[in-house]
Amino acid sequence: MVSASDRRCDLLSPGAALRFEYPGGGFPTLDGRVRAVEPPALLELRWGTDTIRFDLVPCDGNCVLRLTETFDELGKAARDGAGWHACLDLLESSLDGASPSFTVGERWHDVHGGYVEAFGPEASAIGPLGDPPR
Fold it and tell me: Of 102, 4, 111, 104, which Cα lies nearest the Cα of 48?
């Protein structure tokens, strides 16, 4: 089984089992499975019951990261949208070689209300898994 903390992409192949564990136990451990890998442009996996897809799309001589999450529970759309927003902001800081001026929890709290407003009450019925650390 490949752990999410193991960053060796060569260990990822379709069908490989995954386990997502979170330091400090703030979130539940989730099992997953690699669904598709096409280096360097595509990684698709199951994350619990959700499907997560990362695509690198060519754009004007560079590339754009496109993230797609497919899930069955509409009520968690605002929660998950804010979570991915915070994670992608951290990725941006890392790629820029900068230290972020926020934690994931702080950023989640900053942006969650915008997702609730944009997606509506049906998409915000399921709140955070615990309180994201600030």
Answer: 4
